[in-house]
Protein 1
Amino acid sequence: TQLILGLDRDSELVSHIYDERNEAVKRMVRQVIDTAKKANCKIGICGQAPSDFPDFAAFLVECGIDSMSLTPDTAVKTRLIVAAKEKELGI
């Protein structure tokens, strides 16, 4: 996210515009997942986004992610979101 947006998430000057859900970030994530899938590779993601933003976790499922890391305090809630999205998509 930092490289795509060209921002330092720890800088007080720009942290307010740092957002993993930015369309450029999502486009890059989708491209990487698509590339991995075409090569028959499993792909996962680690970071705060799936734990912090339920909509981002759902987006990752839509893209076909195989795994995502979660913080312990959001694991159950996010797993329920993932299960609901998988059911919606029929996967």
Protein 2
Amino acid sequence: MTSTLTQLPRTSTLYWEAALSVMRRPGALKTLPPLSLRLSGVRTEAARLADYCALCGLTQGPVLPITFPQVSVNGLHMALMTLPKFPLPLLGLVHVSNRIEQHRPIPVEAVYDAEVRIGDSREVRAGLEFDLLTDVEVDGERVWSAVTTLIYRRPSPRQDGPKRAEKAVPPSLAQYAHFIVEADTGRRYAAVSGDYNPIHLHAWSARVFGFPRAIAHGMWSAARCLGALEAQCSTPPTTLEVQFKQPLLLPGRVTLKWVPVIDDQLAFTLLSPGSGKVHLTGMLR
């Protein structure tokens, strides 16, 4: 049964519940319960949208960027995973991929409903991988959907389990652009997304979780790639797929490489030019 919210819990409450979830002990859990939450009457704040577009290099127009609904439902994702029946600790989850599909443009002034639910789960070598499925509706019509894939890494990974399925990217990525990622990018993204994960905020808070410096949020990196590639698309893109690889340390300099492929698609890779370390790969169409 789906519970419907008219507003999200306070961010501080969600993060307190997320911190307490470290006490969860899922053990050899193989499947997740079919939980779902719905949020009704979502409106876009003009200032928040403007800040988001400026931070990600996106063109601001009469319709929402295809990545923006993901920002709007971030709190709904957290609310679902802090429910008592959700068995995994949030601080042990790793975002590994995202697929966004826009079924029709969403006007900036639209009032919409969002629903998130637990999708498929599967065992991989690193642990338990599962999908969060999100739908956005305007006047009862589904206009946007996303699959957010996460992994709970088990303390003792399996040696005989299947590896994650990796999507191939064409080896020749001939066109490229460079940009600087500032040290405060994680804090600025937190202000517009509501995602205050400490690994994105400061070097000292990231070190608590084993990172030498703060790291960029994966969905900021995806949106920044979208902002850089918008002008390369002959029509407004409606589908974005990304697979997250190595963390992007802040501050940093990155190179975005891309190549046109079949059916008006762009394959792209975001990497560090010095080391060649790949931060994400994706497809836009």
Protein 3
Amino acid sequence: MLEDIPKRWEVLSGQNKWKGLLDPLDSDLRRYLIHYGEMAQVGYDAFNWDRKSEYCGDCYYPKSQIHARTGYLKANPFRYNVTKYIYATASIKLPLCFIVRSLSKKASRVQTNWMGYIAVATDEGKAMLGRRDIVVAWRGTLQPYEWANDFDFPLESGVKVFPVTDSKHVPRIGSGWLDVYTASDAMSPYDTSSAREQVQAELKRLLEVYKNEEVSITFTGHSLGGVMSTLAAADLVHSRKNKIEAGLQSKQVPITVFAFGCPRIGDQDFKRTVNSHKDLNILRIVNVPDVAPNYPLFLYAEVGEVLQINTLNSTYLKRSLNWRNYHNLEIYLHGIAGMQDKSGVFRLEIGRDVSLVNKGLDALKDKYLVPSTWRCLANSGMVQMDDGTWKLDVHRYEDDDDDDDDESTNK
């Protein structure tokens, strides 16, 4: 029940590493996971993937509108205000499924992509969540992967992010992951600093604003977003930047990661580094037929606790050989909504609309009469000009400043 979440939020956020909550799946945790998964889904729904657009790689909506324009707000009691957009770049050549580039010669951010957002619970949201929750939501990847090639990253020393005293156990991380997280571009008008620096600066600001309240930080993401969530959370704890200094008192802010369909990130020494931080709680949600969490195949190790779902047990979905039908985030959220336990019983426990499955796929059985891939911009982003001609125009018209620290909307 929703009214129990404020009382149980610490347990639901992994205080006891989710012992006794995963099999069978706890009803409050089910709703909790869907909530954070939906916050990650906003990143997909708001991202401009169209390479024909001059603004490919950007977000469609300003911070003040992103939750409303993506449908997150309706019938949702968990209210947040978005305070910061995250941008990332790459210093090495990465597959298009990670950093998307516009085909337009006018494009201003050739190597820069919008990667997600930071949001803080409003007073209304705080009442429903039991504390002032700060969410870092990372977008994932939508373009098709070529698994053998796109995840074939050489392992690279992560010592600059995770300094360690034992030189024999330096954590190594996939070079592609590390690059998206740490690369910066001095010429970019949006991220002259790295994604890492942007996130840490905004979290520092918010922890100062809410230092006299009970606060949590929750990282959420799917696929690449799960990787970024894990790296950023582990980095924050490893560098001890999850502390609040209030007067003479110092307290640790609990850090939780919900990583959906997340590939492997680093080696055994990275796992050892992550596991050394007992106040870092990571839950990976893995769909049995999804191959992504099993890559890269060699030299990598998995971190965190695991909730295993299996959407093959859903009576609502078509059987498919298309890997996207098992990796898609909406498929994951459908699986969480119906999973009972490891016995394979599937029964929708909460009123999550099954039509969401077909938002970007043709995965729902035809008898439910929901068109496939139904979510798109009006006229695919084409706008009629005054002279009667049509033009692709999906620019994000700003009504707020990306660097504006607006604290007045937490009411």
Protein 4
Amino acid sequence: MRPFAGIPLVELQRTSLQGWGRIFKRLTDIVLSSLALLVFLPLMIATALLVKFTSPGPVIYRNRRVGEAGKEFDTLKFRSMKQEYCIGDQFTHTTEALKLEQELIERKSIKSGPLYKIQDDPRVTKLGSFIRKTSLDEFPQFINVLKGEMSLVGPRPHQPREVEKYQAAQKAVLNMKPGVTGLAQISGRSDLSFEEEIRLDSYYTENWSILLDVYILAKTPLILLKKRSAL
């Protein structure tokens, strides 16, 4: 172990994500995301039904994100907000929703920089708050992985308007597919500043290895269990 940005990291031999490394990572993504969809299908169906019957609007929320090489795609999540506050092409109140979001960012955001986190977000449903805290809302992203838009492990996917505020060096995180989980997520993503998060994601992209992916994948369930026990 050695510290990085004040956070202890496992030091592993660097492996370039080229050639067989890239092929292996993609095959791992396909196999494990397929298994995850099969194993969690009953839970995903139950979550979808709860979203459908507790709040009007679509079950799946499509949110525009920036992926590898700056290519944009729609991340899939179970909708956690009331539909009148959702932003995107599938909703009719995007202009009003954007205005409210900006007001909330100015008044209630507890993060600075390109990213934001709205404390006690009034737009989120009661069920939405639960599925966010337990990360159930992110399970549909396994479909993004199967489609090749995301990887199981990688940098956090950010919105285009967030990426526009990146400094040149910070855009190095776009050299890889974004991940469902990642080094920043298992290091306390919600408690990290933007600078700390981008440092961790940059470390991952520069030092990718199979063992680093295994470490992150192994630690992710432990982090999720810890979050749920705190509810």
